[in-house]
Specification:
It is built from 15 helices and no strands. The protein is an all-alpha fold.
């Protein structure tokens, strides 16, 4: 009789048996640890050396960076101090020389050895200096007010209104930056003389009103104001002049204050044009009066320094009054 066939499976039957048999088969082929075990990698010597070098370099650089951070504010303070001394030293020397007698004007000592007020007394007695100061105040103040009025309107029109030739007009105004007063002083004098404005306040004021710098600065400021404010005013029925008067002018107070200081100082210190347009002593400004102390072959520098000190006081007072507006004009308006 034939022998019976052994139908038993050594590792069980079904799926479990097949799985066990497959695992045992793989173990017999790949060995006790298997082939999928990650191989041990040799250490990367180059990478370790690079990291160690970078770490050593950073450790060597850190002390120098700390020293630079400590010395940075000290060097900055020293630079600002030197710059401030160079700026203030001429003013200090001017004030010091105004209290010195004539033979001590150019002495190297800052503090006068012999204090005197005769220089100031001579300035106010030898010339009608108060009249010249009033002339300068009137001329500079009138030019400042009228220039701000017209320049703000021109800047508003060139920035917010749309009309043919707007960019061409602005380019023509901006191009006047290339032309200085000495270049046009002769034709300007001929024009003013033909209009009958020689030796009067109109000749001192009207030609100095126009200034391309003010129009350019105000135009750039008005461009930065959000257009939504103007659109809201238009919806409310406001005219262009109403928008200019009620919306733009209140927002432009800081820049107008800065321009007011700039215009006033420029016309307070004006010398060439007043000297050209006037020969009447009653229309002299302070700069011409101070220059009169200098003769052809000699100069009374103690009187010149005294007059310059008197003239500098209103400008310093003006700066201290409007210094907050000047700082605000430099900062951004915050309307973005």
């Amino acid at each position: 009789m034939p022998e019976p066939i052994d139908q038993t499976v050594p590792y069980g039957t079904g799926l479990a048996g097949a799985a066990v048999s497959g695992i045992s088969y793989l173990a017999t082929i790949t060995g006790p640890y298997g082939t999928n075990r990650p191989r041990s990698r040799k250490p990367d010597v180059t990478r370790q050396m690079t990291e160690q070098t970078a770490q050593a370099h950073s450790e060597a650089v850190q002390p120098s960076r700390k020293k630079f951070r400590r010395l940075g504010p000290v060097l900055l303070f020293f630079f600002i101090a030197v710059l401030a001394i160079l700026t203030v030293s001429p003013l200090v020397w001017m004030v010091s020389a105004s209290f010195k007698p004539g033979d001590e004007t150019f002495s190297p000592n800052i503090i006068p050895l012999h204090w005197t007020l005769e220089n100031f007394q001579y300035v106010f007695t030898a010339l009608p200096f108060w009249r010249y100061m009033l002339n300068s105040f009137f001329v500079a103040g009138t030019i400042t007010v009228v220039a701000l009025w017209f320049h703000s309107m021109a800047g508003f029109a060139l920035a917010r209104l749309r009309f043919p030739g707007r960019d061409v007009i602005f380019l023509a105004i901006f191009s006047t930056f290339l032309v200085s007063l000495p270049v046009i002083i002769v034709p300007l004098f001929i024009l003013v003389r033909q209009m009958g404005m020689v030796n009067n306040y109109a000749g001192l004021i009207i030609p100095a009103i126009f200034n391309a710098f003010g129009i350019f600065l105000l135009r750039q400021f008005y461009i930065g104001i959000p257009s939504e404010l103007q659109e809201a005013a238009v919806i409310d029925g406001a005219s262009y002049f109403r928008i200019y008067w009620s919306v733009m002018l209140p927002l432009s107070r800081p820049i107008l204050a800065a321009l007011a200081v700039f215009f006033f100082l420029a016309n307070w210190n004006a010398f060439i044009w007043p000297l050209t347009i006037t020969n009447d002593r009653s229309l002299w400004v302070v700069q011409i009066a101070i220059a009169s102390f200098r003769q052809q072959y000699s100069a009374s520098w103690n009187y010149i320094m005294a007059g310059s000190t008197i003239v500098a006081l209103p400008t310093l007072l003006l700066f201290f009054i409007f210094q907050r507006q000047l700082v605000e004009s430099i900062k951004t308006s915050g309307l973005k």
